[in-house]
Amino acid sequence: MALSRNFVALALMLIAIVSRFLPHLPNFTPVLAVSLFGGVYLSNRWLALTLPLGIMLISDLFIGYHSLMPVIYGFFVVFALVGIYLKNRVSVGSLAITGLAGSVSFFVITNFFVWLTSGMYSLDCAGLVECYVAAIPFFQYGLFGDAVYISSLFGAYYLLERTGLVPASQAA
C-alpha cells in the first residue's frame, strides 16, 4: 500500500525538526533542508512556505527570541520558494549546488545583519571583516548540517519512492 506523498514528506520533516531540540553542534540544524524539501515535495505551497516559519517560531519559543528573527525567517521562506522552483529539476547536482548556495547565502546574509545591528563590530570595512571571520566556525557546522540534512531528507524520500511506498508518478 502506497503512502501519501504529503504524509511521508511531513513525517520526514517532523523527524528533522525534532533534531533541532537534541544536542547538536552550533548551526547544525535541519531548517534550511526542511525549507527546500517542503518546497519541492509538499503540494500545498502555503504549507511549504509557512512550515519553516512554524519550525522557527516553535523552536525559538524554547531557545529564545532575537533581533535577527525577521531576516532568518525571511531567508527560510525564500529557500522554500527555491524548493518550489526546483520541484521539477531535482537531481543530485542541483541539490548539491542549491544546498551550497543556501549555506553560503545564509552565512553572508545573517552575518551582514549581525554586523549591521548587533553593535559588536565597528560599522566599517574592518568591522565587517571581523564579523565574518568570527563566524567562520559556525559556517563550517552550518555547511555540514545542511549537507547532512539535505542528503538525508531527499535520499530517504528517493528510497521510499524506489521501494514503492511513495508513488513516484503522483504529483506532490
Please give a structural write-up:
The chain has 172 residues and is mainly α. Helices cover 74% and strands 0% of the residues. The chain contains 6 helices and no strands. Helix 4 (69-86) runs antiparallel to helix 5 and helix 5 runs antiparallel to helix 6. The protein is elongated and about 55 Å long.
Question: Which consecutive residue ranges, at least 5 long each, have pLDDT under 50?
Answer: none
What proportion of the residues is helical, as a percent range?
over 70%
Question: What Rg is obtained from the alpha carbons, in whole angstroms?
Answer: 17 Å
Domain count: 1
Alpha-carbon distance between the two ends: 17 Å
- Count the helices. How many? 6
Task: Please summarize the sheet with the most strands.
Answer: none
Structural class: mainly alpha
Number of DSSP strands?
0
Report the mean per-residue pLDDT as an integer. Answer: 89
- Which series of helices and strands comes N to C? HHHHHH
Question: What coarse outline follows from CA principal-axis ratios?
Answer: elongated
**Could you tell me the strand content as a percent range?**
under 5%
Organism: Leptospira semungkisensis
InterPro entries: DUF6580
Keywords: Membrane, Transmembrane, Transmembrane helix
Protein name: Rod shape-determining protein MreD
Protein traits:
172 residues, mainly alpha, 6 helices, Rod shape-determining protein MreD, transmembrane
Short description:
74% of the residues lie in helices and 0% in strands. The chain is an all-alpha fold and 172 residues long.
Topology:
Layout: H1 5-18, H2 31-41, H3 45-63, H4 69-86, H5 92-117, H6 125-163
